[in-house]
Amino acid sequence: MFASVSPIISVSDVSKTYASGFQALKGIDLEIRRGEIFALLGPNGAGKTTLISIVCGIVNATAGRVLVDGHDIVADYRAARSRIGLVPQELTTDAFETPWATVSFSRGLFGKAPNPAHIEKVLKDLSLWDKKDSRIMTLSGGMKRRLLIAKALSHEPQILFLDEPTAGVDVELRRGMWQLVHALRERGVTVILTTHYIDEAEEMADRIGVISKGELIVVEEKAELMRKLGRKQLTLQLHGTLDRIPPALSRHQLELSRDGSELTYTYDAEVEGTGIVALLEDLDYAGIRFKDLQTSQSSLEDIFVSLVRDAR
Fold first, then answer.
1. What residue ranges define each of the domains in the chain, with the CATH number in brackets?
2. Residue 66 is inside which H or E element, if any?
3. pTM of the model
4. Which of 83, 90, 163, 174 makes the best surface tag, with the fewest CB within 10 Å?
């Protein structure tokens, strides 16, 4: 799937302790593959923005090392930073400038020769072309967020960091950004995003990392994570009601609803012999009839919540 097996970003034993004594990161090891979409999930204050800031050279790590496309982010800052585009959470733009001017200026900051055709393409890709000569103060919040992405792409980076890219934007714009991210990946750009929208990670990411209290508690292929940690449930709607689960069903992982009208059976869909056949036989033996059944599978959100809870 990926252009190369060599990582484009390598984070080795990175820690960060602030002057206050607060330890934001604790021995982070992480490799980002060239050409992938990697989602970093975690609750507020978990260390997501601190880690991104260190990789982008904005914050200095207390310990550890970061390589960006083989360049040390400290010893070879300019070469490493030139490969990165960063879209921060905050809407920081010059209110009196125009999109055309501010994106062109951002390109120049990285020592790139002027390229009006590239600036035009970026603004058109982000639906900002008709606003290219408007003052930024007149743009909507969603347009300003798209403008931050345009600035980050101005110097044609190989890596794009999106820190909470769709916070505060509407559903339509979120889906538009998802399409843009997939298009960038098709062009070979590596995308790393932090998000608290679980459906965003589920929709876009190839791999997912979960960070909690400064520690990376899991890094896994999205499909593999859901396979290993996802659970399926079979819900049986009973003809009558039960006061309790009969002893004849005690060998099954069952939960009885509060009103006694439903039994829920949790099982691992990947394991041979899910136990459903035996459950149905035991139900019949116990004289319990049901009128309907349905299955559901745990979402990425369920997995995330359980991982963070277990890490506490």
1. 7-227 (3.40.50.300), 230-298 (3.30.70.980)
2. strand 63-68
3. 0.73
4. 90
